[in-house]
């Protein structure tokens, strides 16, 4: 480097406020220290060495003031005030506005771009939304590294603030993908919307061997994404519609919402409690469901919260859904107690909204020959449709809301979904309402509005993507609530053989809860901690998808084929 260049670098460094201002502050501090040594007679110390003088100047300028050294003359008081005011002036006129604030503003304007050196075999998530929030939570819990790429500086800053790796910019930009270390990545998830995903998938497939997962909003885009180079194409709306359709079929064909066969004659299902039911306002213990019907309440859904083994003092209200286990006959009796009407006179369904989710619900109903009426603003080539707004009382009445047994609300707007739920519940207090929530934050509100079963698009999509990243595929699992799943595990050959539930520590280690044990035709709901797990036992376990995976791995459990 030439002498001229060295001089230029030195001049630039000296001109920097992070050199100039500290040097000035240091000079002022040194001057005040020397002055204190000269004026020491005006303080209670009499004489002061350099260290004592520096100590007093620092605690005075920073307004700490321990009080061990103090002025005893008028001149000492005046000098003390000058030093204190100088310290305040330096803090508020130099340090904060000219040194600290620029650093903060620079960070807010330009989030940091450097990723951790150890980052490899990670997941690059392109595009942030509520579904990605669920995915981030699932991957973080499994200890899988990730990088989020988004164009919003605010989103990237927030992610970085919470400890996640994130980059700001256009995800289809090859240089940005290299910054995200695409060549070392295990998966790239394209979640930028159908219009931007194509460019992203094309770019990623040309510069990396990583597996590419494309999230599509419209099912029509599936073939295009595969042609562009996507290895896996996922439609959260399709999976959501499939699950809502299965829930609708359960409510129509089994008489009670969400029936699950646990083996033998033992079943588990959800029983909504309707507003005019005499159970409303009673405690679970006072309802005496087991004495009257023989079935057991193993859990409840209340305002979207899944409560396993609820306490007897839990009060039943019109937002409560009982999750009960028992034989078919016991559940039918319990359904009568809970106010679930027999659907013999009403085996049809209303589908409110006929987008991708609504069409998938319709396909499920068509497969089983269940008649339905669609409410949508657009005219479709359907056997039975009401052209209109599902949030209109007139449209719901015209579609047969008073006589149908089930309505599936699949609109693309949560506020309109809530209004439809409120109207449907008001027009038919005993109708089974199955609803789509576009964000997880709306789930509880929809339950309070009167829905019996709610699934959120963001939760479903996030869990699907997490399962693909972990296992390479997503297997259908019985859903008890928006993110709570039910699974059956064989005890035989596992680490749980001949151990008690307390000894297993399942809830502490994995977050899962055993809500029932089946041995042959015998079913024991809500087993206690001292219950011993025999080789012939089949466990009925609830938890999130990742918790169930952890449980299966932790104890070497096997599921029924």
Question: Are there runs of 5+ residues with pLDDT below 50, and where?
Answer: 253-258, 342-346
Secondary structure tally, helices: 21
Radius of gyration: 33 Å
Task: Let me know the number of strands.
Answer: 22
Q: In CATH terms, what is the architecture of the largest domain?
A: 3-Layer(aba) Sandwich
Q: Would you tell me the structural class of the helices and strands?
A: alpha/beta
Amount of helix: 40-55%
CATH domain fold name of the largest domain:
Rossmann fold
What is the count of structural domains? 5
State the CATH superfamily name of the largest domain: NAD(P)-binding Rossmann-like Domain
Portion in beta strands: 15-25%
Name the CATH class of the largest domain: Alpha Beta
Question: Please, could you describe this protein's structure?
Answer:
Residues 253-258 and 342-346 have low confidence and may be disordered. Strand 18 and strand 19 form a beta hairpin. Strands 3-2-1-4-5-6 form a six-stranded parallel beta sheet, with helices on both faces. It has a six-stranded parallel beta sheet with strand order 14-13-12-15-16-17, sandwiched between helices. It folds into five domains: 14-109, Helix Hairpins, CATH 1.10.287.70; 123-234, 3-Layer(aba) Sandwich (Rossmann fold), CATH 3.40.50.720; 256-341, Regulator of K+ conductance, C-terminal domain (Alpha-Beta Plaits, 2-Layer Sandwich); 344-460, NAD(P)-binding Rossmann-like Domain (Rossmann fold, 3-Layer(aba) Sandwich); 484-555, Alpha-Beta Plaits (2-Layer Sandwich). Helix 5 (130-141) packs parallel to helix 18, helix 10 crosses helix 14 (356-367) and helix 10 (236-253) crosses helix 18 (457-471). The protein is an alpha/beta fold and 561 residues long. The protein has 21 helices and 22 strands.
């Amino acid at each position: 480097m030439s002498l001229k260049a060295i001089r230029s670098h030195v001049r630039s460094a000296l001109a920097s406020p992070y050199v100039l201002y500290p040097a000035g502050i240091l000079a002022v501090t040194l001057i005040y220290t020397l002055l204190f040594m000269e004026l020491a007679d005006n303080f209670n110390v009499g004489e002061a060495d350099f260290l004592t003088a520096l100590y007093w100047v620092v605690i005075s300028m920073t307004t700490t003031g321990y009080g061990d050294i103090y002025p005893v003359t008028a001149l000492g008081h005046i000098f003390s005030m000058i030093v204190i005011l100088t310290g305040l002036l330096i803090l508020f006129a130099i340090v904060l506005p000219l040194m600290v604030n620029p650093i903060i503003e620079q960070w807010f304007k330009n989030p940091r771009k450097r990723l951790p050196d150890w980052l490899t075999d990670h997941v690059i998530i392109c595009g942030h939304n509520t579904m990605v929030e669920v995915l981030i939570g699932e991957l973080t819990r499994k200890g899988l590294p990730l990088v989020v790429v988004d164009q919003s500086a605010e989103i990237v800053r927030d992610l970085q603030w919470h400890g996640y790796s994130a980059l700001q910019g256009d995800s289809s930009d090859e240089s940005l993908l290299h910054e995200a270390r695409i060549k070392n990545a295990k998966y790239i998830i394209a979640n930028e919307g159908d219009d931007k995903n194509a460019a992203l998938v094309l770019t990623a497939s040309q510069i990396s061997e990583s597996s590419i997962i494309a999230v599509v909003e419209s099912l029509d885009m599936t073939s295009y994404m595969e042609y562009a180079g996507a290895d896996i194409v996922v439609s959260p709306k399709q999976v959501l519609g499939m699950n809502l359709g299965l829930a609708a079929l359960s409510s129509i064909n089994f008489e009670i919402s969400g029936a699950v066969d646990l083996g033998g004659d033992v079943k588990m299902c959800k029983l909504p409690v309707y507003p005019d039911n005499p159970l409303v306002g009673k405690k679970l213990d006072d309802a005496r469901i087991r004495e009257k019907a023989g079935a057991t309440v193993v859990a409840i859904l209340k305002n979207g919260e899944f409560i396993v083994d609820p306490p007897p003092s839990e009060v039943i209200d019109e937002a409560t859904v009982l999750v009960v286990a028992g034989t078919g006959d016991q559940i039918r009796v319990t359904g009568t107690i809970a106010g679930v009407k027999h659907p013999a006179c009403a085996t049809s369904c209303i589908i409110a909204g006929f987008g991708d989710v609504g069409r998938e619900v319709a396909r499920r109903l068509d497969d089983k020959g269940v008649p339905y009426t669609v409410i949508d603003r657009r005219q479709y080539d359907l056997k039975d449709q009401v052209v209109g707004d599902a949030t209109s009382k007139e449209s719901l009445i015209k579609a047969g809301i008073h006589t149908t047994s089930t309505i599936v609300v699949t609109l693309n707007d949560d506020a309109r979904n809530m209004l439809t739920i409120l109207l449907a519940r008001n027009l038919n207090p005993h109708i089974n309402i199955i609803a789509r929530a576009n964000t997880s934050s709306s789930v509880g509100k929809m339950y309070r509005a009167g829905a019996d079963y709610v699934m959120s698009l963001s939760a479903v999509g996030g869990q699907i993507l997490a399962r693909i990243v972990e296992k390479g595929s997503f297997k259908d699992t019985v859903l008890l609530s928006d993110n709570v799943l039910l699974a059956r595990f064989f005890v035989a050959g596992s680490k749980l053989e001949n151990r008690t539930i307390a000894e297993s520590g399942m809830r502490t280690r994995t977050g899962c809860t055993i809500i029932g044990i089946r041995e042959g035709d015998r079913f024991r709901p809500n087993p206690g901690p001292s219950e011993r797990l025999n080789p012939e036992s089949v466990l009925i376990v609830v938890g999130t998808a990742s918790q169930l995976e952890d449980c299966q791995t932790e104890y070497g459990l096997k599921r029924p084929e």
